[in-house]
Amino acid sequence: MKSKKDNIAEYILYLWQIEDYLRAFPEKAAESTELMELLDMMHIEGIMNGGHLQLAKNALDELIDLHSELLDTEAPYRAVIMHLQPTLNIFKSKTNRPDMSDVEACLVLLYQVMMLRLQKKTVSPETEVVVRDATQLLRFLSKTYYDNETAL
Fold first, then answer.
1. How many whole angstroms from its chain centre is CA 78?
2. Backbone angles phi, psi at 144, to 5 degrees
3. What is the signed CA dihedral for 131, 137, 142, 147, rounded to 10 degrees?
4. pTM to 2 decimals?
5. What is the DSSP string of the chain?
């Protein structure tokens, strides 16, 4: 399994992808102990039809907390989010959860674009720019998370 410490954003996206995979192909869980454990967790947590594992929610909460801290202390980070904010607000308004955090919106955006690419669908140049900016934000968050975790 991907390590949360190494790249927390990738870890969350990985869990989301595994959740979708196990919903579509629950029989494939028998292929590995890790998949079987995650499928069992999904059943226990009642998310076989939708939602996310508590593991993913906890990691997202940690990232959102770090985001809040950085907004207060890191001017370059604040500048990136301010630049991205109008686009994120438009994106969030088009979802069924317009109140989601900016961090979650970045992750959802990247996940949706990843799914489009897997389906060989085109992504507009405008969306590519937003993906680049969201990736930059998540990369900074993940690196800061890693630095904080390895400093302990």
1. 19
2. -65, -40
3. 150
4. 0.94
5. ---TTT-HHHHHHHHHHHHHHHHH-GGGGGG-HHHHHHHHHHHHHT-TTS---HHHHHHHHHHHHHHHHHHHH-HHHHHHHHHHHHHHHHHHHTSS-TT--HHHHHHHHHHHHHHHHHTT----HHHHHHHHHHHHHHHHHHHHHHHHHHH-
Q: pLDDT at residue 3 above 90?
A: no
pLDDT digit string, tens, across residues 107-122 = 999 999 999 999 999 9
In the chain, where the domains are located: 8-151
Q: Is 32 exposed, middle or buried (0-12, 13-18, 19+ CB in 10 A)?
A: exposed
Which residue type does 31 have?
A: E
